[in-house]
Design a protein that fits this description.
mainly alpha, 67% helix, elongated
Amino acid sequence: MTAPPPLQPQSAPPAQPPVAPTPAALPGVEHDWLKRWPVYQLGMWVIAVAVVSVIPALLDVLQHARQADSAGISRWALALLLAAGLQIAYAVYLMQLPDWGTAWVMSLVMLVLATVYAALLGALMLARPQSQFIQFLELGDELPGHQATIWCLMMVILSALLAYFAGRVSFRWRRAYWRWARPS
């Protein structure tokens, strides 16, 4: 019998740089148009409500622009502009990534906004024109005619409705997704 040949150390194969996966190698779900359309509609409605919500702020800005000796734009107008900007940003986010998760995020954002408007509504109903809160927001001119109170009530209703519909879209889409993903 002959002895087996001695083992020789084998050289390791040359290291290759990692290869980035191609888009075809990463499976994803492209939802059909019928599932995406309610999300696009919801995003358009959110933008429409944001534009409506900023009308009093724009009127305050125009009034400031017309008067040379104006004290400046009111704080409440700046807060409305900020809220409308956030609404539009989240609506664009929703329309760029139409999925049940982004619809759920939109529902939460609209609930937070409705809560803020409801808290402001309560504060406006209970506060006196001399209160520090009213003076801080510079809302003294809007209190006598209940303009700010009516505006907050309208915005609570619109924001709550949008939150409800965003939640419904999200829930239905998620339920359909789990039916599709569950093995039979």
